[in-house]
Amino acid sequence: MKKFVLCFALLLLAVPAHAQTRVEVGVPGLEGRQCYTAEEAEAEQAIKIHSELMVIALNCQHMTPKGWKNFYQQYQEITARNSSMIANYENILITYFALAGKPNPERAFHDLRTNFANKVSTDAAQMRPDIFCATFAPRLPKVDKMSAADFKGWAATPTGGQTRPLCQ
User: Fold this and answer.
1) Residue 25, pLDDT score
2) Residue 161 domain-assigned?
3) Which of 46, 54, 62, 73 is surrounded by the fewest CB atoms within 10 Å?
C-alpha cells in the first residue's frame, strides 16, 4: 500500500505546474498571511478536485464500463479543456505561498497537490479496487459534462475542508 501511495506522489512531482509562476510580492498587508481569501480557497478546492480526479482516473481506467469513454482519457480531456483555468488556480496558490513567506512557493504548491493525491490514494488502497471505482469513478463523467463555469462554481462552493481558514 505504501508503494501505491508513493507511486502517485512521484507521479505528481513529475508533472510540472501548468502555469508560468507569477508571484506578486510586496502587496501591503498581505505578507505572512496564514489565511485564504475567497479566491484562494476556491483555487485550493479546484486543485483538490483536479488531484482527486487524477487518482480516480489512474486507479479506475482499467475498470471503465464497456461503451464508456476510458476514465483516464476523460481526465486528460477535462484537464486539456480547463487548462487555462487550472493554470490560473495554480498561480493563485503559488502567489499565496509567496505572500505567506514560503521560501519556495512552487514547491509548497506541489506539496499541497501531492498531499491531496496521497489522501485519495490512501483511501483507494484501503478499499477493494472495484468498490473504490464504483464509488468514485462516476465523478469523471459528471465533471466531463460540466462547463468551465460549472466547474468554477463547484470549486467556489465552501466545503469547510480547506487547509487554511478564510481571512476575516
Assistant:
1) 41
2) no
3) 62
Please check whether residue 24 lies inside any domain of the structure. no
Range(s) of the domain holding residue 45: 36-156
The pTM of the full predicted model, rounded to 2 decimals, is 0.79
Q: Are 18 and 12 in contact (CB under 8 A)?
A: no
Contacts with 107 (C-beta within 8 Å, 6 or more apart), sequence order:
none
The 3 state secondary structure assigned to the chain is CHHHHHHHHHHHHHCCCCCCCCCCCCCCCCCCCCCECHHHHHHHHHHHHHHHHHHHHHHHHHHCCCCCCCHHHHHHHHHHHCHHHHHHHHHHHHHHHHHCCCCCHHHHHHHHHHHHHHHHHHHHHCCCHHHHHHHHCCHHHHHHCCCHHHHHHHHHCCCCCCCCCECC
Q: Does residue 30 lie in a domain region?
A: no
**Cα–Cα distance for residue pair 160/146, rounded to 1 Å:** 23
Per residue in 115-136, pLDDT tens? Answer: 999 998 998 889 888 899 999 9
How confident is the model over 135-153, as a mean pLDDT? 93
Residue 113 lies in a domain: yes
Structural domains of the chain, count: 1
